[in-house]
Each structure stands twice: as structure tokens, then as C-alpha cells.
User: Fold these one by one.
Assistant:
Number 1:
Amino acid sequence: MAVAYTRIIFFFLCCLAVMEVNAQAVSGTVKDSAGNAIRSANILVKNQEDRIVLFRFSDAKGEFVLQIPDSLYNNGYIEVTASGYRQQKSRLEPGRQSYDFVLKVAYKELQEVTVELKQPIKVSGDTLSYDVESFAEDEDRSIGDVIKRLPGLTVGEDGTITFNGKRISNLLIHNDDLMAGSYGLAPKTISKEMIERVEVIKHHQPILALGDRVFSDDIVVNLTLKDANALKLSGRGRVGGGIPGLVNLATDLILLNQTYKGLNSIRYNNSGEDYRNDMKNLVTAGASPYPDELLSDGTIDNPGLPLKYINRNNTYSINTNNLYNAKDSLQFRSNIRFVKDRNRLDYRAYTESYLPGDTVVFDEMQSILRRPYEFDLGLTVTKNKRSYYITNGLQVNLKGYTNDSRMSFNGEDFPQRISMKQTKIANNFNWVPDFGQRDVLFFNWKAGYYNAPQSLDIGSGIDSVLLNNNVSYRSVQQQAEIPTWISQAVFNYNINNGKLLQQSYQVGAENKWQYLNSSLDLWQHDGMVTRPNDGENDVSWRRDDYFLKANYSLRKSRLLFSLSVPLTLQRISFDQQREDNTQKTRFVVQPELRSIFYFKGLKHLAFNYSRHNSLGEIGDVYRGLILKNFRLITANEAFVREQRSDDLGISFNVERAVSMLFFGTGLQYRNTAFNAIPTIEYRDNIQRTVLTPLHNRQTDLTGTADISKYIFSLRTKAGLGIVVNRQHTQQFINNNLLPFQALYGNLRLSLNSKITDFLSLNYEASAGRFSSRQQKVPDNTPAIHNRVSIHSQQMELVITPSIPLYITFRGAYQLNKTTGSHNDYFFIDGNIRYRAKKLRTDLEFDIDNLLNVRSYNILSTTTNLLNESVYRLRGRMFLLKATFNF
Amino acid sequence: MRMTAFYSCCMWFCCLVLSMDARSQHTEPALLKLIYSFSHRYDKSPGVVPVEAEMSLRVGSTNARYGCAAYEMPVHKPFGSGADGPPPEVVAAAETGRAFVGMPGTLVTSKKVSFEVLYLVPDKKQLVSFRLLGFQNFKTELPYPEIDWTIEQETKQIDRFVCQKATGAFGGRVYTAWFAPDLPFAYGPWKLCGLPGLILEAEDADREVVFKFKSLEMPTEEYVMVEVNRVAAVSEKEFDRAKLRHDKDPIAYSAAYSIAQFGTEPAMILFLDVSGSMVSDEAAKQAIKKEIELKITNPMELK
């Protein structure tokens, strides 16, 4: 035992002795000539054959420690190398424990490998270009069919194209704006074979002279032609027929090349297709500067059903768009469009107005024959050069309708006729002068005239107490018009100093002259025509706004911040019957602030605040009576309505990539202060509204949350969304000021599932509930309280059994519920499409409303009103269409 | 025609990925670019041919990037009319992690050689992996490879350089590496690093993983990849979870992301082979089907 221990100790000591003899610890530093430590330098210990025996890397302080074997002290050395420095050697000296190295920069080597810091990637980053051939499927005909497939791009019901949720600013054809903003028809008619690429251009600046000097947030879609010199006319003809008595005809003629572009179309149908969307300007958003129509023949809204279910139409349309590029960047364009329709609408609307201790019921039933028409003429001349830009556009819009109906209102039958003839002439002039500087000046002048005289004839049935001293009369005629002249001139000045903070300024004037003329005439039984004392209006109105607006924006990597401060001097002057001139001048500031903070891990927080002041319109100040419809008479105190609103919003978004979970939530608050309130007076068959001065306030709070998740095992995307809204508002009804609280909640569930390669299923369910309750109710009266619930479910099944055959089935279920009323509906539609490639013909078979639902009820509630409308539907339709492409 | 479109699409995709590094603050020029001929016997079953591919290593003064050369798109080619630098929103996307610049198709690469881009920062002892699944880039911090190399006295000439032999164990294999002391960079192919000279060749004892020197150049307009923000930073475990789902059905995986993000399915399916050849639509679907069945039974790292 003892021997064993001795042996071990001996062995151990020997080991120590060997180590002591064979290695020697040395240390040192590596620095550059300036004395800075060089990190990660290679400390190589080499033998006489110049081979590395051992090595170390210097640490952050440039220091190193080595154990040098004794054998190396014979011709061994330490070599220090580092990228960008000259190597240095030092012979190993026995007994020396410290080796310090000062490395010199290797200029030559560095010059060889160092390059300037340039961007390695050159992208004309604002353009995203889709190759049509790669994306198009065999079944696609028009370029619109292909656009629907392009990721990020969606096409809405009315033809509006959006890119990643943002509405595009225009659709161009080979860089030209042929359609003048009403681009709905173009994607539907241009065949995919004519287009080479679909380009999404972000920050598009159509004005060459502004170039990249003026930041634009516009996204446009540009269709690039395959053959920019094509001379071949192409197009398509469609013939369709079906039951009951359905006809659908169309001819489109298209020629597109560099110098000339033409898209012309003639169409007719009675199968529910609405051509007015093709005339709709899909570009301009925001409020129209022109007044709304004063008179109407009914009190209903669109029921939210596809128009083809309701619209028993007879529509003709001619749509011509032609553009010519002359020499030296000069361009001429004409857009002439005409649409005429004749359709019938049957409905019944039942409105209950709850008053403290009373309920007024309006029951209207109407069968209307509507004859609308619209004519649009647009002529534009543009010179778009790098040095300057000048354009003038003239727009003439003639529009109107004559509607005849038989009304049954609260048990009384009477005929009704309303007609309107609108004339709108607008001119738009834009000029960017050759300013010769980095800064940019831009001038815009818009001038316009608008008038839409209306005439409403109603047979007896209107309250004789109010209008005719309680004596019955034969009929009433209301006429009204608001001729309007507008001029708006704005100078924009953009400062381009390349700094982080961007600035731009606007100065301008907006002037508006308006007249409100109206007359209310009663036809007595004896043939006499009388006018009530206050049965006419002759208001003249002038409004001048002078504004100076400063815009600032700041963009840093994790922060986006923009502030705009418009200072406006508003002046209003008006009189009634050439007397009582009233003037009002005020100065307002309407700041708008927006900021977004981006966090790591794909999260961002956005914040916005804005204040908005608005002054009333001519439609608020007339004193005489206007019979707006068969049950609403309005008049006002002559003063200017004012409104101020403050908007505050915050939102937060998260994206979890691994689990494919997306979440977003937001809160929006709005507080609006008014200086006037409509006072509503109910009688049995009529409602009278007068705008009276009374300060009141409305608050609105909305919370939203959306979550979406992909469930891997089910190959299904599931989404859940919730919206909650609370609104506090006040109503002045029959001399009582009643506060109301409205609550709205909606829960939405959606599932998109790809069951197999040839079968996919989309499902959406939504449950919504709206309630309105009177607040601060006196003890002895019951509160006015309304509730409406709408539940809906939709399912779509797409089957592709073989390539040229496509089958789609859609089912929609809706349940509308309120206290004591309960209606549910089930709609089934189908579409079967077959493409005969050789015949260049598509055969399509549409089935609409397969279950033949003939009527549809919709419920709505606002403050003290509960409305139920019943629409007569067209019923089941079968339509077979053959489209020949040439 | 179609091929051009694919490249446009992919370039868009890659522009997004790569332009981010270009603008980030850690950008440094690549001093050297090495190409290795790589071969890996990913399945030891008889009859299975080892995969062969070209791998690239870009070396900068403080970091290096390693990845499959075939998966690098010709991004240096100007896309559209040339403006200098990526567009503001690409930068914004890169720096803030928001806003997609449109990704028209989903790209699937072969499992045999991963799409992984490795980013090595020795001073920080950092090994970062960027990997792509469908539309989404993932960033994972991996354990830094500390290899205990034994320096051997044998040398051999590779290209212009005298290389010395070293042996070391990593990932369950024992590697022989040939490093060039004249190139004083402690990098090498894949995760093999930590020698006082660039590793020009390496192979494991069974010759199942082999890196051969192919070429070395001093690029003038290339950059070492740097940290990007437009990615989801995840743990290795999380990434493995996502990868498992992806590999089960890459098309469905991408579709899910695309539907959730853009509201549409990806319009185009592309498959990129290790040789750099790309196919689309039906051909891609067929190739991806084969990929799903492919098993990597002999991975580079044996655990």
C-alpha cells in the first residue's frame, strides 16, 4: 500500500518536473503604431522549418499568454499577423518573458482590398413588376383576371384596385392615363395577351418636372404593352341570354400603342349588371365641394345586397376613351361616356320613432319606375416635360333622372314624381413652371359651376295642418336648386435641402358663391295655386377661405413623424331674400400629427391626433320651408353651424412568424362639439326638422382587435375580429333634449381552407348587435331603447375538376332580429365556366338566387328610430353567356 | 421569358434581404471571397449519390459570411432603371421590419444543402444563422464553435498558398483542415473556424463532409452580410418547430403566411436546386413533392 502511494507521488513529481523543464510561460501585447490594442491578431509560434507549432489570438486588450516548449528556443520565433497589418517576427530568447509587438499598417495590401462604400444593389426600387405570362392562368381572359391573382393586389366589387390594402392612385396604360381615373372598365376589357407586365409603381410622380423633388405617396398600376407599336384592333363580343327574359350584349373595341390609345365599348343588359361603376371615378376620394341633393322620393338606403338581386334594370352604355400623344410631349385625351337605365324598385319601409311616452309610425310602400341617365365629357390637353408641366382639363357632366311612383304612406295612396337635371362644368388647370432651382413651385387652379334643379310633385297626403291651414288640397310641388360657382387656387412650395426634416408650404384661396332657390306650391281642389307664407327661399351665400399650410415630416429608421399646421381665415356672408346680411369671420388652426414607432421583433405602435373645424353650408341657413320628401319638412334659423372635432388614436401591431400569428389592436376616440342641433318635431304623418342654436357634444370611442392564425394540421387560416363602438349623442325631439348612448359590437370569424388541390372552401360568420338607449331618463317614464341583431354566414366552394372547367358555389345565410321581429334568408349562387380555347370563346353559365328568394327585410336603428325595410327581389335567374375574343 | 420573370421575382425577394445588410451600420467590405466545392453524403444508404454544391465564404475584417453560392441571386445586376441604392421603403422595411416590397412567389430550396447563411463574429463569439422558410427570414443565435485544433507539421500547397494541417473535432466528426497562415483570418467553411489562417480545405475522417478549395478572389463590390432586422429572431428550438412544419408541406406553409399577410395565396411556386437551376409551377410542385420525401439520415452535425 505504502509502496503504491510512493509510486504515485513520485510519478506526479516527475510530471511536474517534466513540465517545469519543457515549457516556459511568456506574455505580450500587440498594438498598432498609435498604441491601440489589436484584437484577434494571430500569435504564431513557429519552428525553424517555418511551421506553426502553436498559436493564440490576442484578446480585446491586445494581450496574449503562451507556453513555449523549450525545444523551440533553438531557432524558434513568434510571428504576429493580423489582417491589414504587416506581419512581425521576434526570435524566442530563453529567459525573456515579455514580447510586445507594434504592427504597421500594410498600406499596399489595404489598397488592394479596400473598396469604397457603395451600394452593392441597384434597384429602381419603386417599381414592382409582374410578368403577365408567368402569373396568368389558362382560364384568365382579361388583364383584370390576372391582376386578381397578383399577390398584394386585390380588385374590389366596383373595380377599385388596392395594393397591400392601400387604394391605388390610378391605373395607367403604358404610362398614359387613358381612363382619366374611371379605370373600372379597362382591366375588364383589355385582354391579357396585350399586356407584358403589370407594374406597381410606388411613390409615383406623374409630373416629370416635379421628378423626385416632390415626395409622392401614390401607388399606381401601369400596364405595359407587349407591342407598343401595335396597329391591330382587338376586342370582344358577348351574347348572352337567359330566363326570365334576360339579355346581355357587349362589344368592346381596343387599340393600344405608343401614340394612340383607344378603348371603346357599347353594352346593353337587363340581367342586373350596373354600368355606372364604369363611369365612377375610382381615384378621387374625399368630400365633393358641391351641395347634396335637397329632395328625394324615399327614405331608404341601399340594403347591402348585391345589386343584381334587386335591380330589375334595362341599361345601355357607351363608353369611349381616346388618347393621342403628339410631338414634344403634348397629349390630347377625350373621355365621352353615356349610360341610360330604366329600372323598377319595389319596397316597403316601416319606421318607428320612439318619443318619450309616444311612438310615431311611418309606413311607406312604394313601387318606383326610375329613369336615370348620365353623360360625361372630359377633354384634357397636357404638356409634360422635364423642364415644365402644364395641363388643362375640362369636364362636362350632365346627369338626371325622372322617377314615377305610387306611394302608400300610412294608409294613404298618392302618386309621386321626382326629377333632377344636373349640369356640372369644371375646369382644372395645373402648372409647374421652369423654376431652375431645387425647390419646386406648383400652381393649381380649379373652377367650376354646378346646378341640379329638382322638382318633387306629391299628390295629396302631406299634412294639411302644417301646410294649408287644415284644409285639404290636391297636390304639392316642391322645387329647389343650389347653383354653385367655385374657384380654388393654390400655390405649393416644396423646399428640397436634402435634410432629415422635410418642409413644404401651401398658400391658397377658396371662394364659393351659392344661391338657394326653392318654392313650395299647393294645388288646391279648385285649381288655384297657393304658396304658404314661408314656402320659399332665396338665399345667397358667399364663403371665402384663405389658408397657409405648413407641412413637416421626419423619417428616421425607427420613427416616422409628420406634422401639418394649416392656418385658415374663413369668412362667410349670406342673406335671405336680399335682406338680413349676416357675416362671420374667424381664424382657425387645424393641426394634424401622425407618428409611428417601430420596435424590434416586428411590432409597431402608431399614434395620431388631429383637430378639424368646419363651418356650415348654405343648406343649414334657409328659413323658408322645404319639403325634402313626402314626410319631412325642414327649415332653419339663419345662423352658421359650427363644428369642431378632435381625433385621437393609438394602434399596436404584432407579427409572430414562427407560429404564423398576426395580431393588431387599436383605439380611436373622437369628440365633436356643435353649436347647433336639429330639433325634430313629429306629427302623425310628418316630421319637421329645424336647425336651432344649442351647444351640444358627441363622443365616439371605438376599439378594435384582430387576430389571425394558420392552423397547420387543418391547412386552414382562421381569423377572429372584434369591433366595439360607443357613442354618446343628443337629440332634440318634440322640445325635449334627449341624451342617447349607442353601443355597437361585432364579432367576425373567418376560415380559408384549401382542402385539396382542386377544392377550396372559404367561410365567414359575423354577429353584430346594435343598441341605442336613452340616458338620464326621468323616473316615471320608460327609457327609449332599441336593439337590432344581424347574424350572417357565408360559404364559398371552388371546384376545379379539370383545367378548362371551373365551378364556384356560394351560399349566404342572414338572420335579422329585433324585439318582436325575426327574418332569415338563404341565397345560393353558382357559376360554371368553360373555356373553348380553339374557338377563342368562353362559355359561362350563371345561376343567381337559386332558392328564388323574393323579398328581403333589413333592420337598422339610430338613436330613437327603428327601421325595417322590405325589398322585392328579382328571384331566380339563369344566364348563359358566350364571349368571343378577337 | 419565364426564367426572367422568376429572376425578377427572386431578385425582389433577395433585394429585400440583401439590401438590408447594405444599409445597416455594421456593413463592411468583403476583403476575400472564397468558393469551396462542397460534398456531403447526406444518406449512407447504398446508391445515394452525395450532394455536391458550391459554397461561398466572404471574409471581412471583423466578420465572415458563409452560404450556398447557388442560392445567391444575381442581385448586383441593376433591376429596372438604375437608381442609386435601395428605395426608401426597402430601407424602411429593412430597418423597421415593416412593409413588404411585394413578394410574388414562394421560393423553396433543396433540403440537401440548407439555405442557411452563417454569419460569424469571432470578437463577440457570435455565430448567427439566417434561414428562409417560405416568405419569412429567421435569425437564430447558434452556439459559437469552439474547436480545439491540434496543429500538425504537415504542409501542402493549395493554389498560391502554403497550407498547414490541423485536426479537430466538431459536431461528432473529426476534421482535417488545411489553413493558410498567409491569409490571417480565423475563418473557414461552414462552422469550421478558429485557426490562425483561413481554412482552404477540410474534410472529416470518413470523407462524408468535404470542402475543397475552388477559387479565391478579392471582390471589389461585395459586402459581408450583417445583422438585419427584417427577420424574426427566434431560438433554435422555435426555428426547428417552424422548419418541421415547413418541411412537411412547404407550399401549404408559404400559402398560410401569404394568406395571413397579403390576403392571397402566393401566385408562383419556385424551386431552386443546389446547382442554381430554377423551376416553377408544376415542375416545382413535383420537385417539392420529392423534397418532402427526402430524408437527411446522415446530417453534417451528428448529435
Number 2:
Amino acid sequence: MEEKKSVLKAGASLLRDYLVLVMIAFLVLITAIIEPKFLSGSNLVNIMRQFGPLVMVSLGMTFVIIGGFIDLSVAGTINLVAVVTISLIQPMGQLPALLIGLALGIVCGALNSILILSSGALTQAEALFLTFGMSTVYSAIALLYSHGSTMHFWDISASKSIFESIGSGNIGFFSVSFVIFLVLLAILWVFQSKTAEGRAICLTGGNKTAARLSGIQVSRSIIEIYVIGGFMAAVGAIVLFSRITTAAPVIGAGYETSAILAVVVGGTTLKGGKGSVLRTVMGVLLVVLMSNCLDLLGVSSYMQYAVKGAILMFAIWLDNRKQA
Amino acid sequence: MDTVQSEYILSIKDVSKSFPGVKALDRVSLDVKRGIVHGIVGENGAGKSTLMKILSGVYQKDSGTIIFDGQIIEHTTPHESMKRGLAIIYQELNLVNTMSVGENIFLGRFREMKGMRGTHAKAKELLDNIGSKVSTTKLVSDLSVSEKQMVEIAKALSFKSKLIIMDEPSSSLTNEEMVELAKIIRQLKAQGISIIYISHKLDEIFEFCDIVSVMRDGHVIDTKPKPEFTRNELIMKMIGRTIEKEYPGRSRNVGDILLDVRSINTRKLHNVSFTLRKGEILGLVGLVGAGRTEIVRALFGADKVKSHQVFIDGNQVHIRNPKDAIDAGFGFIPEDRKIQGLVLPFSVESNISMASIPKFTKLGFIQKSLEKNIAAQQIKSLSIKTPSTRTAVNNLSGGNQQKCIVGRWLEISPKIFIMDEPTRGIDVGAKYEIYTLMKEIAEKGGAIILISSELPEVLNMSNRVLTIFEGRITGEFNPETTPADRIMSAALGIVGRES
């Protein structure tokens, strides 16, 4: 009896841990049965493309959340990086534009962390408001910079081969953006789980006070998570506008919520400390598949918002249950 | 079940409860008579709190029966048990700080009380009844700890409680406040209300209780009327072995000056200067809020400091943050284990290793096997009781959690070990182990700054004692030759510095 109970319990906790995978499998199965188009080559390419930008942003967000914070500024960062990078291709050449774009992401992230540290806003709730404000600031700069207009690849006469290959090139079987994703995932995974800095970030997220009193440089961890968050948002921005070949100053709208959704659904706790970039990849997969499936099943995009919201709430509820 | 009043208000039979990896309660049976004070003693982790949480409905039991006031209780919630007449007053009081006393007592029942006027009138009646003069319109955040306790008791009475459980009620009370509490307990008893009194402090158990139960490792070991217990027997039953004395004796290895602190000034501290010698245990005595904790936090770089100079072995060191302090040779056990010391959801291993990360890092990469060795070695040498290195530290008892923090610092062998309330909330057996460790550290030439609210602890462990009052050092004493009351009056700011 006792043993049976404990087996059941273990099974339940395993199911909880891999709920996302189960849900993905379930979703794929149902959709494939109802709508055979789901498994068509063009749809799978479509899924991969949607996956690219979101997974980049979500990987960065994972670090911020593991570190015990949150970053709503990614939408603004994406807007700003996209319009600035695309506008610099013509005057400066594509490589400098790319590097400046990435650097801009780092600057945005660093700015967030400096604001948080200098204002002493060391709770997740305070960071939520602060980065929300910063998102507005970055978006506003993007709008001012671009005069609100959308920029297109076809207006650029200079070479833009790097961006074109990020957007639509392939390396063997994989798209270039997917290879970039794999490389960054590997680096971030090693950083998070194998290095002392990664451990410091986890401890900071687990208990800032205790971490600081044990000699962990909490401020450094906070700067690191936001810099990673900003950098990955910049990568996401570049992948995004390279794919759609245009950059509008509102291109990043909604990415912050989708990224948080993906991280939490993946199983990284919003309370900080515990989680993994690998889990986030599963979370992103679920989010992307879900919207693809709902598209195919003809569910309106308004309804999709409702579904997304419901899933986020369910994931947070589950997360809280796990803690108890 | 017959509802004729039985002799017992509460009868617990064969109740078991397991948590992952821990059997917290193993077929526990306990009967509480009406109108008496029933003491429950036991080490941390003995299962007292778990049992109480099952009674109140915070946890659900795995098996067994509970009969309260003639009714079998299956599933319950904290609110239901309150309504049934079973109230618990937790160590960390559960009041809403931003609301008034009256509002807290009748929280969520204002309508039953016919609005706020009725609420305050009824609250005043209840408070008068227990002899408390707290104004019902005062905000709870403005109350002292003992006044808050009164409010909790009044709240319990407002539910016409038949049984009130008090979980470590005395842990943050002053002596005068204890007298008040004793009075109230007697009054409640006179009104026929049963009380379960949980405490580590044997003095209180002997003073208040009629019947005493001892719990250990999830079992009730013994239940007897108080007069049949002796103090030693109680201790022995609690820890399952005999200890001859409460303190291991002072270390006698005081050497040269190691630490020289000159004029710490912060918002709360004024010109605090002192020295610490090798092999010395220096006790800081003072009231809560006098500045004891502020001194060590300033020293450790945890708080902002206006000015101070710190010399170690004659060389000036500049400490701006805890990391600087650790590099300079400090270790620090903070006063609040769960909030400042541990990362509760993390494993025992990572909690032990967190101050020595550089030790098992090569080129920025963590060497997992080295880390595991470090943890395993500390677990062994401090005999930390844990199912494995990977167990969440949250699942350990208070004493074992504290030992994890001690181990964390021993791993980097600090020259100066700051211990702020190192034995708070841990049981007699673990306390003795911590004392022994302190003695060993000192005998090996390490120096310790000890802060404790338990005066006997400071007086019995320290080589030298400083008294702190309102942010100033008011005296320096040899605890072996100075009577305790003299030290206490210096800590209360009554007499000046001993020449």
C-alpha cells in the first residue's frame, strides 16, 4: 500500500516535470489527425521560423528569471535593435551594423541592471515595473529614431548577405538561424550549469540575502542576467527582421509575454533559483506549436490570446503547487 | 461517537505523516485533558510542529484518528478548526500589521459583530478579560511582541476556543512579558480552557504545565504528570541520551591581538571600537535592537558604514562588501537562518559549498566531484543528519540546518568567525554540539564574536564580554568573575564602563 502510494507519487511528480513534453506530444497528435497539413514540409519550415526569434528571447529571459528577476524591456529592446541595425546596413556596412546591433542589446540590458541596482529595486515586482518603464523608453527611442516608419531590405542597396542568410539560408539540413540557436543554446547551457558564474546566478535567484552574505557578488550576477537578456533580445531582433526582411519600430510587441510564458511553461520557477535553458526550449516549442496548431485549426488570433493567458496562469498555478 | 463530555478535549490515536524522505510522525498517540496545561517538549524535528499543523488543518494526516471535543476530525482547514474551538498561536504571529487590533481579532467577521463599533466593543471586552490594556484601535505594527501575543489570544478566545495551542510562545518575550504570559495562562486554565504548550525551555515547562509529553523522532516517548519528571530525565528523553552539562566549558587559548576595530560609525552605532584576540570568544550582550547585530554586520560589510578602520594582524583591511570580508578572513552566521543564511529550496550540498565556490572552480568551471567531496566531508565531520547531499536543506531540522551553515564557513577556515544567534531555535542536543564546535574553533586559534539573546550562553562560552546599549559599548567584563546582574545592568545602560 505504502509502496504503491510512493510509486504513484513518483509517477505524478515525473508527469509534472515532463508535463510540457506530454502536452507537446498530445498537441501534435491531435492536430496531425484533424489537420494533415500540419505535417507538410512548408508548415514545418513555418514552425521553425516562428521558433527562431522567440527561442532567442526566451533563453535570455530564462537567465533573468533564474536570477530571481524579470525583464519586460525585451519588447522595447527588440524594437530599438531592429530599427537601428537595419538602418546602419546602408551607411556602415553589414558587419558593423550587426555588431552595433548586438552591442546595443547589451547596452540596453546593462542599463536595466544599473537602474535596478542604483535604485535598490531588488524585488521581482519592482523589476517588473522598472523594466516595463524601460521598454517604453526603448520603444520611444525606436519610434523617434525611425520616425515611425518601416524599413525594408529592398530599400538597401549595400550588401546584406549576412542578414539574408540568417533570414533564409541553410547549412546542410538546418536553417542558419537554427544553427545559431544550437550554438547559443550550448554556450548558455554550459554557462548556466557548469560555471561558477552560473551557480552564482542560481544562488542569487534562490536567496539574494544569503548569497550576498556568503560572498557571492550579487550585483555582478544581476548585471550578468540582464546583459544576457538584452543580448539575446538583440539576437532575437536580428533573426526576426532578417526573416521578415522588414523592421518596424513595433516589431517586438508581445515578445516579453510570450518569452515569460515559454520560460514558465518550460518549468523554470518564477520564484527564481531553479530552472534550465533546456526546459525553456521545450516551453518555446510548446508555445510555437500551439499557436501554429490553433492557426491551422482556424482559431482566431483573439481567441489565441485567451488560450495563451490561460496556459500561463495554469503554468504558474502548477509552479506554485510544486513549491508547496 | 458519543458526544457526552469525555475527560479528554483532544485524543489523537496512531497518527502518521510522511514527507518525501522523512517520516515526520510515526503512529503518534496523545490525549489532552480538559482544563489543563499540557506541555510538549522535543528537539527540533521531533515532530511537534507537524503534529500541531495537522491539528490545525495546515497539513493532512496520512493515517490515524483525531477526536476533538467528541467529534472525529477527518479533513479540516485552519478556519474550520478555529470555528470548532481549536486555536493555534504560532511562534511567528499571524496578524495583519496594517490593521487595527480590533480588526485583527474579528478579521472577516465584521458583519457578525454588527460593524466596526461592535467589533471594537467586543474586542475590548475580550482584551479586558485577559487583563490587557491595549487599545483596540491601535495598529498591530505599533505593538510589542507580547502585546501581539495578547491580541492572538484574544482572537482565539473570540472563537470560544476550547483548546489553545501555543507554539514556542516565549521565544521573543522579555522577562516581564513572560510574567504577563504566565498570568494569562493561569486565567485561561481557570476558565476551563485547555492549553498545549510547546517549548524548548524546560524552565517554562516546569513552571506552567500539569502534564508533559516528550516527543522524539516522530514518536511520543513519554507522557507523565509534571511532578514525576526530573529535569535531567526530561532532557535525556528529549535527546535520547544523557548529557552531563549544558556547556562544554570555556576554551583557554587566548593569544595575541588579531582584530582591531576602530570607531565604527553608522546611523545606529557611535564610535564602536574593540579588539579581538586569537583563540578568543568575545560575547556581545545587549537588548534586541541595541546594535549588536549592526556591529557585526558593519564589520562584515553587509551594511553601509559612515566610517571605520579595521586592522587584522596589524594590517589595515578595507571591507566594502561581504566578499571583501570573506577574503580578509571573516565567516558569518547570520541571525536569521532561513532568511539570511540558507537558500531553502537548494540542496544541502550547494548550501554547504556556497562560500567556497572558488575552491572547487577551475578556469571558471565548477568541479562537481570536488564540490560533492566538500559537502560529504562537512556532513561527516559535523554529523549533519540528512538523507543525502542532494536533499533540499528545507527538509532538515533547525539544528542540522544551522550545522550546514557552520560547515559552509569551516570549509574556508575563517580566522574570525562571527556568530549571530547561532543556537536560536535549535534544540538542546544540537546546541551542545554547536558549543563544542565553538570551543574547538577557538582552541585551534580561531577567534569568535558571539551574539546571543540567551545570556547564560554568552556568559558560559565567552572569554570576554562587551555590553552594548543604544549603539555604544557600555562596558567590558570578564564573565568568569563578574556577576551576571552587573553585566545585565551595563547592557541596560545603567552603569558605566568597568575600569
